[in-house]
Amino acid sequence: MEKELFKRVKNDYKDTIKVNNEIIKSHKNSVKSTIKKIKDNKRDLIKKYKSERPPFKFRFIETVKLIVAKVKKIYEHLFRAWLLIVELKGEIIKLKDDIKSVVEATERHDTPVGFTLNRLRNIIE
Q: Which pLDDT does position 77 carry in this prediction?
């Protein structure tokens, strides 16, 4: 009785394993076919994209135009900054001349103002 029960359980187990293996195989096949369909769709999409996009020459020219426009903007900003620097240098020179004229106008060294102006003259020179 026990042997018979054991054989039946063993056979049931083998049958379940066979069924499970068949299910796994069918799933593997469906997964493989799905992957193949996806790859085919991918290829088709790539072909469609390549056929619709402009040639490399035009894409390259557009990219170069964008780069040139950005470089022009950078140079415009640099030029404006350079003009401001030149303008500020001119103002500094004017201030130095004004300070020199004030120092020369007050040649008295014994006053604190004269001492400060002499220090300013030394700094300027």
A: 94
